[in-house]
Amino acid sequence: MNVSRNILTEWLIEEFKNEFSGDFSRLSKVPDTRVIRFLDGFGALTPSEKNAWIEMSAQILTDRLFRMSSSPELIQRFTSAMKSPTKPEGVRYSGVKILAARAKSETFAGWQGWLRNTGVTGFAEKLPEYFAKNVEELIPVRLSRLRKQVEKALFHRFSAESADLGSQMWRYKGRLEGTPFGVIIRYSGKTLLPQLTYQVELMQKDWPMTLQYQSFESLYGVGGGYWDYITEANAARSVEILCDLIAYVVKFPERLPREESSVV
Fold first, then answer.
1. Residue 149 belongs to some domain of the structure
2. Torsion angles phi and psi, residue 6, rounded to 5
3. Is 113 within the bounds of a domain?
4. In this structure, what DSSP letter does residue 255 have?
């Protein structure tokens, strides 16, 4: 890359701060229990701790873009800086397919009995209200319906054509403002697997190889695009945010600073 590490890191810090200081306008809509847990933990940090985490995240992505490995010390500080909730389960941090299975469980007399048995308290026992307003909405979206909604939305937004790769994996090829790209999406109805995983394929040969396969979440260091909280009620808006995140990833390389100039 033609830009210095310092300029790139400064640009990324501002990019990350725009997302993190704007009520997480995109991340907060991602139906992924990993992201939900991250946001809860990030919210518990002090302002100085939040800034330190953002700077470390920007440094790590800078290393990736320069095709370098981040130092073990940086990785250790980055992973230990987050004050994540102690119970990564409950109705807040368990995928909706797991919750549906618990609701049918005779062993625990439903998921409420399961919560009592496991001693889940605090954030973990609270619904993520953006994704489910009440327990009646904890119904996993039907896989066939989800795939049709995704295919329709990608065609409408990006004129994307689909190809079945087998094993519930699909590739969608489209264009955004003249920029070609692909999206690989795997769907799963298995209880312990995400309902949907996605990666954006960037087709431009001159972009860093480290950006060829990305999700929005992986750019920010807060997940890998593993969505497990898609319900019948939130499926439409989940598909809508998926399109927004894909568009962000597609245009992200074009927005990177490329010359020794001031960050704008």
1. yes
2. -65, -45
3. yes
4. H
Containing structural domain, residue 38: 5-255
Instruction: Give tens-digit pLDDT for 53-74.
Output: 999 999 999 998 888 899 999 9
Beta bridge partners of 182: 173, 201
pLDDT tens-place string over residues 184-220: 999 999 999 999 999 999 877 666 667 788 999 999 8
Helix/strand/coil for 37: helix
How many degrees, rounded to 5, is the angle at CA 198 between CA 253 and CA 93? 115
Q: Is the whole-model pTM more than 0.85?
A: yes
Long-range contacts, 44-53 (Cβ 8 Å, 24+): 44/83, 45/81, 45/82, 45/83, 49/81, 50/20, 52/81, 53/78, 53/81, 53/82
pLDDT of residue 231: 98
Contact in structure between 201 and 246 (CB atoms under 8 Å) = no
What is the rounded distance in angstroms from the CA atom of residue 19 to the CA atom of residue 38?
14
Domain count across the chain? 1
226: β partners: 197
262 occurs within a structural domain: no
In this structure, is residue 263 part of a structural domain?
Answer: no
